[in-house]
Design a protein that fits this description.
Helix Hairpins, NAD(P)-bd_dom_sf, alpha/beta, RCK_C_sf, Rossmann fold, Trk_Ktr_HKT_K-transport, 3 domains, 11 helices, NAD-binding protein
Length: 327
């Protein structure tokens, strides 16, 4: 308690000193000229107006002692008030710079941590901030000095995401999801190893966080699973899939791209089967869902995907429906 005052921020201490000057001189002028300053509040009002250099002139010292008090307040009190506002401005600018350069820890919860900065992350933010204004993101990257985009829902942390201290600044412990993208400045193997190390660090801090990781090499997929990845996105396989389908059916890639891109109009989702679909065939379920502008693509049963199964495939209560839903 003895040193609690000195632990306060400088602008708070200066504010306390300034208020002390106001109260002191307000009380002194009230005692020195009780006929002019009939109440303590009158004295405090005069002290504030004088120290702020406003000078309304509604209260003016009449005696020599009162005038000396006015001089003392102007010399000392005004300096403290000016210094306080200067310190307050400097503190605000300093915090704004720290926030801009990724040096301020994130304290809220329920956010999505995104590791790495690249065009994939830029597109992710562009679409999700527009489609889901309630989502909040924390971008963690060691290569950026300033985040090149500005969204109200996005916070930037500069640093190596494999360090626990950096992930703690991103408040991974209170985040609901983490998306780990491949480092574009490394070769594929090194990028995958760095991603898996980041995943291990994140899971060490928050074992329940839902982790989506981008893996570039097939050899590291199993390691990512062992590290606790909930979803693995194999970017190179997705690119290869698009190229193969374009070679087999020229012109198909723009359709695939449009289908995946138009998040605002269509989106892939998992749905629990409504009671009316339990026991129905794939063909009958597709017909019912189409009337609701929902395209049934596949079924997830006990973790095993069945894409475009037989029309006679029967839906069970425990299944999850993989659909394309029109908003």
């Amino acid at each position: 308690m003895k040193y609690a005052y000195f632990r306060l921020p400088i602008f708070v201490r200066m504010l306390l000193v300034g208020f002390s000057f106001i109260l002191l001189f307000g009380g002194l002028i009230h005692a020195a000229e009780p006929n002019t300053y009939r109440t303590l509040f009158d004295g405090i009002w005069w002290a504030i107006v004088t120290a702020a250099t406003v000078g309304y002139g509604d209260f003016v010292p009449k005696t020599m002692l009162g005038k000396f008090l006015g001089i003392a307040l102007i010399l000392f009190g005004t300096g403290f008030i000016s210094a306080y506002f200067a310190a307050l401005s400097a503190s605000a600018i300093s915090r704004e710079n720290a926030l801009l350069h990724g040096n301020v820890a994130y304290t809220k919860e329920g956010h999505v941590v995104v590791v790495g900065w690249n065009e994939r992350v830029r597109e992710l933010l562009k679409q999700l901030t527009a489609a889901h204004p309630s989502f909040t993101f924390v971008i963690v990257d060691a290569t950026l000095d300033v985040l090149p985009v500005s969204y109200n829902q996005v916070h930037f942390i500069k640093g190596n995401p494999t360090y626990d201290s950096i992930l703690q600044k991103a408040n991974v412990a209170k985040a609901k999801m983490i998306v780990i993208t491949a480092d574009q400045h490394k070769n594929e193997l090194d990028a995958d190893m760095a991603s898996i190390l980041t995943l291990l660090s994140a899971k060490g801090i928050n074992p329940d966080i839902y982790a989506i990781i981008e893996i570039l090499t097939t050899q590291q997929v199993n390691n990512a699973k062992l590290a606790g990845a909930d979803e693995i996105i194999q970017t190179n396989q997705l690119s290869s899939f698009s190229i193969i389908n374009s070679l087999q059916s020229p012109g198909i890639s723009p359709l695939i791209e449009q289908l995946l891109y138009r998040l605002g109009e269509n989106c892939f989702q998992f749905l629990d089967p409504p009671d009316e679909l339990v026991g129905q065939t794939m063909a009958e379920s597709s017909r019912i869902l189409l009337n609701q502008q929902i395209l049934l693509i596949g079924i997830i049963r006990e973790g095993v995907p069945f894409m475009n199964p037989s029309p006679l495939f029967t839906i069970q209560q425990s299944d999850r429906l993989f659909v394309l839903k029109h908003h």
